[in-house]
Write a structure and sequence with these properties.
Mean pLDDT: 82
Number of helices: 7
CATH architecture: Orthogonal Bundle
Radius of gyration: 22 Å
CATH superfamily: Winged helix-like DNA-binding domain superfamily/Winged helix DNA-binding domain
Low-confidence stretches: 164-183
CATH class: Mainly Alpha
CATH topology: Arc Repressor Mutant, subunit A
Structural class: mainly alpha
Number of domains: 1
Strand content: 5-15%
Largest sheet: 3 strands, antiparallel
Shape: elongated
Strand order of the largest sheet: 1-3-2
Number of strands: 3
Order of helices and strands: HHEHHEEHHH
Distance between the termini: 81 Å
Helix content: 55-70%
Length: about 180
């Protein structure tokens, strides 16, 4: 039984994978793991999930909004947001208020304790990344963005919505309850 060598293009593919492909996959896995670890820490230490935190941040930033407006802002489905709002309401971090004129409309509002929770919880992982990226030269920022967009294309996942986890979470003193501002 004679062993035939693999075709040249297959050998090149294997060489590429060993040289670059594995590095890319390991890097993506590290990014995913960092997100998972951060989410678990947030849940264990602050009793809130990343999607709940994102919804709180959105309400803190935008003020009163309907559930459909919130779902669109955080890029989550309506049923997902409804479940999140149920849990945040049970913790008294948000309230639901019916519109005085159109009783079908329900507005979500963050409470003072919800504002305090949003302020005291650690920054979302992407906040650290955002700060680090802003410190890079613009050309390097563009190269990173283009490379990641190309990975999305290569994976064929352009149709997937980006998670709402990528919102900015500026923590401004106006978002705090009045008794917690200025010290």
């Amino acid at each position: 039984m004679e062993h035939t060598p693999p075709p040249a293009d297959e050998s090149l593919r294997n060489q590429f994978f060993e040289t670059y492909g594995l590095r890319v996959l390991k890097s993506l896995r590290r990014i995913i793991r960092a997100g998972d670890i951060h989410s678990k820490k947030l849940n264990q230490e602050f009793h809130i999930t990343a999607p709940q935190m994102i919804c709180l941040y959105s309400l803190q930033k935008n003020g009163s909004m309907t559930q459909s407006e919130l779902a669109k802002d955080v890029d989550l489905g309506m049923s997902t947001v409804n479940g999140i709002m149920d849990r945040l309401e049970a913790k008294q971090w948000i309230v639901r208020n019916r519109d005085d004129v159109d009783r079908r409309k329900v507005y979500l509002e963050i409470t003072d304790s919800g504002k305090l929770q949003a302020y005291e919880a650690p920054a979302l992982l992407q906040d650290k990344l955002s700060e680090a990226l802003q410190a890079l030269p613009e050309l390097e920022q563009a190269a990173i963005a283009l490379s990641l967009e190309r990975i999305v294309e290569l994976m064929g996942v352009e149709h997937l919505d980006a998670s709402g986890n990528l919102i900015a979470t500026d923590k401004i003193s106006e978002a705090l309850p009045e008794d917690k501002q200025n010290g």
